[in-house]
Design goal:
Layout (H helix, E strand, L loop, with lengths): L6 H5 L6 H18 L15 H4 L3 E6 L15 H15 L3 E4 L8 H10 L3 H18 L15 H15 L1 E4 L4 E4 H10 L15 H9 L4 E11 L4 E3 L18 E10 L5 H6 L8 H11 L1 E10 L5 E6 L10 E4 L6 H4 L10 H4 L5 H13 L3 H5 L8 E8 L6 E6 L11 E4 L5 H9 L47 H14 L3 E7 L4 E2 L12 E3 L5 E3 L37 H4 E4 L8 E5 L13 H6 L10 H8 L12 E4 L7 H14 L12 E3 L3 E7 L5 E2 L5 E3 L2 E4 L2 E8 L11 H8 L1 H10 L7 E2 L6 H14 L16 H19 L3 H18 L5 H11 L4 H10 L16 H4 L4 E7 L2 E8 L5 H10 L1 H7 L4 E7 L3 E6 L1
Parallel strand pairs: 1-2, 1-20, 10-12, 20-21, 22-27, 28-31
Antiparallel strand pairs: 3-4, 5-6, 5-7, 7-15, 8-9, 8-14, 10-13, 11-12, 16-17, 16-19, 18-19, 22-23, 22-26, 24-25, 25-26, 28-29, 30-31
Length: 957
């Protein structure tokens, strides 16, 4: 028999038990649903006719979208949901109009993989998972406005995801105005001649395909042939942010290769500076801001052009343009588009044998090396390997300051993902260039004077010398000399020279790359794009949205040997010819024409880039969001200059994925005038993780944690000793505890209290089922203080509380209110427990004012029992919208404090005095105290140091 069903529980017919908790919780959840208790009014309707409600400050509180997994919830999942619910309830009781709801991020790979395995349509399994998760969450008593909930797979939702994509597609970034503008305005500039075309021809002289190419170079959403992260094992391409540090797919842990494919991209790089600068105005954890700053990676330097005969120029970005005279060779990333253009038919005379890699021609050498490089991850390519690899392209470029011909190599340590995909190599002053130059017997030139005794002959060095404090040497031509200058001055001078001679200029570079937005999947939002017979992309008109997914027989993209880089994507949609090939009238005056649909789908991040806006106005079929509603809930205001959600709670793992993408979409929508908020989330809070012990047998396989026995400090499963380590909680680790189990054993209010009491919300903590009973006992004592367990009658009395009780009560009110506002729920529970224990020890029936205040204090944390007790106390209105108690300052301040009196550093007396006592009054009391007089024994006093009200230090003469 469990502790919750002990003999004592059974003996008291009205004791708070798990069975009673279940009854209370189910009844009040039904009541809240029926009454619409948590429905938040919008300004365009209810607020307009209710001045009192309109005068309330608003609070928009959000959790990160949950994915409806088939495994359902374990007790770690609701931690953040319970926390935001407690906070939202306290804010309601503190006079705010609170919007708090929850939807489901329902597109994605897991449902598709399940469909591949079972043949079940992803929608069927996903909707079943949503139904199950909704029931689990409801049981926790979460106060969500259910009218506003939705799933991203609903066509009325992703209609607007597609609509936003079209806004981005039909926009360009005007660097002069520093904002996005409609693409039609750019077309007008080309048509009028205000803006020249790339080759100088009139806009009217360009073919339709040429115009499309020109505009594609400006659009914020564009398709391009570019190096992408290709995962054969998944059958899809991935964004940089979805590739792990060791070059594998975040989902599935498959190898990832570089491949050149035509894919959709978002020009997030256009917003790099704004994404950086606006971080300063956000109330986010500094660690998350730092991750975004590092990911965006702003660096100042110079663009330098190295001419190549017959092939234009190789452009490099460098932060050390002062070392340009020391550049003795160049390196291109193997994927660089210029490689094919600069390769000669044969090796130049005198080519060093080491440079050719043993190949007969440059083309053969480059092809072989590219294949070798494609099999490596970016991390592997940048690792400080002892042996550097590469191959000569057969081409030479001209160093623009020295006029020297420098050989051009390709090497895997140079990536297309940073700068221009090309570097000028200064081997004397860069460790990787030094190692490469040694391997390929390339020259080195010292141009930064070493601070040690190695001298300036770099050929004799054992390693490179890098410094920002040294002087420049060997850096002069007939027009400019950097010799003797420091690095800062040398950078400025050479940058001016480059610009004057038209071979470069100062510029800013970013680590951030454009967002790869295509996926070769079925279960995602279809692109609202069709292609004509010339291959030109056309947006669907808004009247054709939503473009819904077709039914298919095979949900799986074609997957390949995970290690086979020489493969190409094949999407599930491409196999549905009736859907792909269509005749449409796009309303552009061209009449009905044959088109081919885009057969990629959007990534799973698309739907979560804007979902905060849908919560505001979930049933609007005419526009993205009503402007007045968006302005009310998310618009800029004092302390929130860029607007956004008031509190957003979720895991720190989304720092450079969801959070960065959502900020980008928000800024585009703001620029185009669709929303007033330039940022989606003003305040971000990262909750910790609930961990659990993982037990493994001798094979390293996880065993059921619930069946492990502890004996003499060791752990055993079916008689075999097993290891134990603290880790994640999950079904695969066989250590998951479901909220349903805990609710069944103790009730939802107990689960809520336990998760909030485990420790600070932002710190990870281990789950211990045995400790849950402590919060269950707190609720039993609370119940017992108000309800007679034998009769079920309320025992409170209409009398005034005593002085001690008033002080305990108002200190608790003051402390709990501050803790809840600061999301310190564990200490709030400790203060409630302290007050409840005080009342229990005081004995006798509770005075009504104390009982009611106690219930109101508990209401945000344990809403079901609070609602029940509030009703039993005779109230007909829900506790949810009652005012949170306000502390009386007179009872919060201690009536007396203890002052220590020291003589020569030794405590001689302790005085109980008023906290408001003056220094002079305290000194007089201390000197008059009999113990102090005796200790001084007639000695004179040289000095009295008073620190009222806590300390008096007497220094005898």
């Amino acid at each position: 028999m469990s502790e919750t069903n002990s003999a004592a529980d059974v003996a008291a017919p009205h004791r708070y038990t798990a069975a009673m908790a279940a009854d209370i919780e189910a009844r009040w959840q039904d009541f809240w649903d029926a009454e619409g208790t948590y429905e938040a009014p919008n300004p365009t309707g209810d607020l307009a006719g209710d001045p009192e409600l309109a005068a309330k400050p608003k609070k928009f509180i959000m959790d990160m979208f949950p994915y409806p997994s088939g495994a359902g919830l374990h007790v770690g999942h609701p931690l953040g949901y319970i926390a935001t619910d407690v906070y939202a309830r306290h804010q309601r009781m503190s006079g705010h109009n609170v919007l708090h709801t929850l939807g489901f991020d329902a597109f994605g790979l897991p449902a598709e993989q399940y469909a591949v395995q079972t043949g079940t349509h992803p929608r069927i399994s996903t909707e079943a998972n949503i139904e199950n998760m909704t029931a689990q969450l409801r049981r926790l008593g979460l106060g969500h406005d259910k009218r506003r909930s939705f799933a991203t797979i609903e066509s009325e939702y992703y209609k607007w995801t597609q609509w936003i994509f079209l806004q981005i597609f039909n926009s360009w970034y005007d660097t002069d105005a520093d904002r996005a503008r409609p693409i039609a305005e750019l077309v007008a500039q080309f048509e009028s001649g205000e803006r020249a075309t790339p080759d100088g021809r009139d806009w009217s002289a360009l073919s339709a395909a040429e115009r499309a190419d020109v505009l594609s170079d400006h659009r914020l959403a564009y398709a391009s042939d570019a190096p992408v992260n290709w995962s054969p094992g998944l059958g899809t391409v991935l964004a940089n942010e979805e590739v792990t540090a060791d070059g594998r797919s975040e989902r599935g842990n498959f190898p990832v290769f570089k491949a050149k494919l035509r894919q959709w991209n978002m020009r997030i790089t256009a917003y790099a500076d704004r994404l950086l600068n606006d971080l300063d105005g956000l109330d986010w954890p500094e660690a998350i801001k730092l991750q975004q700053r590092n990911w965006i990676g702003r660096s100042e330097g110079a663009r330098v052009d190295f001419p190549v005969d017959g092939a234009g120029s190789i452009t490099v970005f460098t932060t050390r343009q002062d070392t340009l005279f020391g550049a003795t060779y160049m390196v291109l990333a193997p994927e660089h588009e210029l490689v094919e253009r600069i390769i000669p038919a044969a090796w130049p005379d005198g080519t060093h044998p080491v440079w050719t890699g043993g190949h007969a021609t440059p083309a053969e050498a480059v092809t072989a090396y590219r294949k070798q490089a494609a099999a490596k991850s970016d991390v592997e390519r940048q690792a400080e390997a002892k042996d550097k690899t590469g191959v000569f392209t057969g081409a030479y470029a001209t160093n623009p300051v020295s006029g020297e011909q420098v050989p051009v190599f390709i090497a895997d340590y140079v990536l297309m993902g940073y700068g221009t995909g090309a570097i000028m190599a200064v081997p004397a002053h860069d460790a990787r260039d030094f190692a490469f130059a040694r391997a390929f017997e390339l020259p080195m030139r010292c141009v930064v004077e070493p601070s040690d005794d190695r001298g300036t002959d770099a050929s004799t060095w054992e390693d490179a010398f890098g410094s920002y404090d040294a002087k420049l040497v060997n850096s002069a031509n007939d027009e400019i000399s950097l010799d003797g200058l420091g690095v800062v001055d040398a950078k400025a001078r050479i940058t001016d020279w480059l610009k004057e001679h038209g071979v470069g200029e100062g510029t800013v570079n970013f680590r951030l790359r454009d967002w790869l937005f295509s996926r070769q999947r079925y279960w995602g939002e279809p692109f609202p794009i069709v292609y004509d017979e010339e291959g030109i992309a056309h947006p669907l008109p808004e009247s054709m949205l939503p473009l819904e997914l077709p039914e298919v027989d095979d949900y799986s993209p074609r997957t390949f040997d995970p290690d086979d880089a020489d493969t190409q994507p094949e999407t599930p949609l491409s196999r549905n010819a009736d859907w792909v090939n269509v005749t449409l009238d796009l309303g552009d005056g061209a009449g009905p024409k044959k088109y081919r649909r885009e057969t990629n789908t959007m990534p799973n991040w698309a739907g979560s880039c804007w979902y905060e806006l849908r919560y505001l106005d979930p049933n609007n079929s005419e526009k993205l969001v009503d402007p007045a509603i968006e302005q009310y809930w998310m618009g800029p205001r004092e302390g929130q200059p860029t607007g956004g959600v008031d509190l957003y709670v979720g895991g720190a793992e989304h720092a450079v994925l969801h959070l960065l993408y959502a900020r980008f979409w928000s800024k585009v929508l703001h620029d185009l005038g669709h929303v007033s908020s330039a940022e989606p989330f003003h305040k971000l809070y990262n909750q910790g993780m609930i961990q659990a012990f993982v037990y493994r047998d001798s094979r390293g396989i996880a065993v059921p944690a619930a069946e492990v026995e502890e004996r003499d400090g060791a752990y055993y499963y079916e008689g075999e000793k097993v290891s134990r380590v603290l880790g994640k909680m999950g079904k695969s680790l066989k250590n998951a505890v479901t909220p349903d189990e805990i609710c069944g054993e103790y009730g939802a209010d107990t689960l809520r209290l336990y998760e909030m009491a485990m420790g600070p919300l932002d710190v990870s903590r281990p789950w211990d089922t045995r400790a849950v009973v402590g919060q269950y006992r707190l609720l039993q004592r609370l119940w017992r203080n108000i309800v007679d367990e034998e009769s079920g009658e309320v025992t409170v009395v209409d009398t005034e509380p005593g002085e001690d009780t008033l002080r305990a009560l108002h200190k608790a009110i003051d402390g709990v209110g501050g803790d809840m506002a600061g999301m310190r729920f564990n200490t709030a529970i400790a203060k409630v427990t302290e007050l409840n224990n005080h009342l229990t020890k005081a004995g006798g029936p509770l005075p009504r004012p104390v009982a009611e205040a106690l219930v109101l204090l508990v209401a945000p944390l344990a809403p079901h029992i609070a609602e029940e007790l509030w009703r039993r106390l005779g109230h007909t209105e829900s506790v949810v919208h009652q005012d949170f108690p306000v502390a009386d300052p007179a009872y919060v301040v201690d009536e007396t404090v203890t002052c220590v009196v020291q003589i020569k550093g030794k405590v001689r007396a302790r005085l109980e005095i008023s906290p408001s006592i003056t220094d002079a009054e305290l000194e007089a009391l201390a000197l008059a105290d009999p113990a102090v007089v005796a200790a001084l024994d007639g000695a004179g006093i040289r000095k009295v140091i008073v620190r009222a009200p806590k300390l008096v230090n007497i220094v005898p003469a």
